Amino acid sequence: MSVRNQRSSYGALPYTPLLPWQVRERRFKLVGLGRRGLEPDHVYAFLDRVALDMAAVYAALAASRREAACAKDALRRQQSDHADQGPEA
Question: Are 37 and 31 in contact (CB under 8 A)?
């Protein structure tokens, strides 16, 4: 079962990972005058950087999954070919 489909024993909602576009498009409420807060341009620049890193990680994960699927297919073909040859005498 994948992480996305799991429920905790407390009935919490299933885990849904953030996607790069969700990080990139996230906006924060601005603070009023005389209050402390973060510089919006710095926050959004950081979010863009995080989104780029996330996109790279997701791409690497997809490539890894494709590679694993190819390896499984090759192993299945090898096992099938070996089974078709029958028992060795």
Answer: yes
